[in-house]
Sequence to fold (476 residues):
Amino acid sequence: MSPATLYGLGVGPGDPELITLKTARILAGVDAVAYVSAGGRPSRARAIADAHIRPGVSEIELVLPMAVDPASAAPAYAAGADRIVAILDAGRDVAVLCEGDPLLYGSFARLLAHLDDRIGGRHRVQIVPGITSISAAIASSGHPLVGRLEPMTIVPAPLACADLDAHLGQGDAVVVMKLGRHLERVRAALARAGRLTGALYVEAASTEDERVLPLSELASAPAPYFSLVLVPPVRGAR
Amino acid sequence: MSPATLYGLGVGPGDPELITLKTARILAGVDAVAYVSAGGRPSRARAIADAHIRPGVSEIELVLPMAVDPASAAPAYAAGADRIVAILDAGRDVAVLCEGDPLLYGSFARLLAHLDDRIGGRHRVQIVPGITSISAAIASSGHPLVGRLEPMTIVPAPLACADLDAHLGQGDAVVVMKLGRHLERVRAALARAGRLTGALYVEAASTEDERVLPLSELASAPAPYFSLVLVPPVRGAR
Fold:
C-alpha cells in the first residue's frame, strides 16, 4: 500500500479571500474533500472553500446530529473517519476542510482522534493553519485587544458559570468563543464581574453578515454559534 | 484631498504560502509598502511577502533601535508614521506588512496608535488578519493543545515572574510567546509550577528552520524572538 496524505486545511473565518495560498494550492491537487455539517445546515467550511474545490472530486460530508450532548456525535465522526481512511488506503489524498484554524476549537480535533486510531502511521498527516475568528473579530474591531505585555485568555462560552466567573475575575483580556445559546449566561457573568461596559460583540467576522456592537446594546436572543465577545483587560489591575 | 487606504496586512508566521489570497491581492495593487526591522536584521515581514511586492513600489522601512526599553523606539515609529501619512495624503494607498496577525502582539498595534493621531479620519484603515505563530506552532505539533471546553491563555514571556507564576498556577493551557532572552526565566517558572514535563518548545514554526522539541530537552541559550512554548492544560484540574 502506498502512503497517501491526510490534510487538515484551515479555510479561515468566513471571507473566502482569507484562505491561504497553501490551502488553495493543496485543494487544487487532492482527490477528495471532507467536511462537517450540523443541524441540517450546509457546511460553512465547504461554502468558504467552494471556489477551490475541483469539479468531480469525491466529497465526504459528516452530518452531525443537532444535539447538545457531544457524545451523540461520536458515531458520525467514526463513520466519517472510516470513509476517509478507505480513500487514503486506496492511495488517494484527502483534505478535511476546517473553518477557522483546524486545531483551535473546531470539529477537526475530534475527527483527528478517530483518524489517528485508524491510520496508525500508514499515511502522512499535514495540518495547515488558518485564520481564526478571533483574529478576524479583532481586525473588524479596528483596534488591538491587548498591548505587548498583556495576556489574553480564550474561553469557550459553554464553560460552567463558576469557571466563567473565575476567568473574568482576573482582569486579563478575555475572548469568549461560541456564544450561541450561552449569550445571556455570558452577559450575566460579565455584568457580575463589572466588565459588561467595554465588551464588544462580534458576529460573522469578515463576512457580509458581520456585526460589531457593544454587547450591552445587543438584543436578547440566542446568538449564532459563530459569534464571540471581546473583553478588554482591566487596565491598572496589575 | 482624496482619501486613500492604509492597510495593515498580516503576512503570517513565516511560510510564504501562509499568506492569504486577500493580502496577496491587496499587495498587487498598492503604491507603497512599509515594514519594521529591528536590531540591524532585514525585516522578516518583508521577506515573507517578497514575491507579492511589485517592482518599483515605494518602500518605507522603520528601523527600530536594538534596545530593551520599548520607549526608545518611539521616535522611529513617529518618523515612520509621518512618512506613511505623507503618502496617504498624496492620495496613494500604503500597506504595512505585519508578521503573523497585525493586531496580536506585533509592532503594528504600536504604529497604528501613531498613525491614528495623524490620519484623524481623513483616510480609510483596513486590517487584514493573518495566521498567528500560535496556530502555526500548534499545527506543527500535530495535535490540538486544548479540547472544546478548555480555555487557553496567551502570555508574553517578558511578564514579571510573579505574573508568570500566577498564570501557570491555574492549570489552563498556556502559550508563552516571544521567548527570546526570557527562555530560562520561563523554563524556571514552568518547573516551579510542576509543568515543565509536557511543555513543547517551537521555533520558527512553518519555516525551513522549524524546530519542535520538549522544552526540557532544549539546550540552555537565548531563544530566538520568534519561538514559543505550548503548555498543555493540567487535565483533571477542574
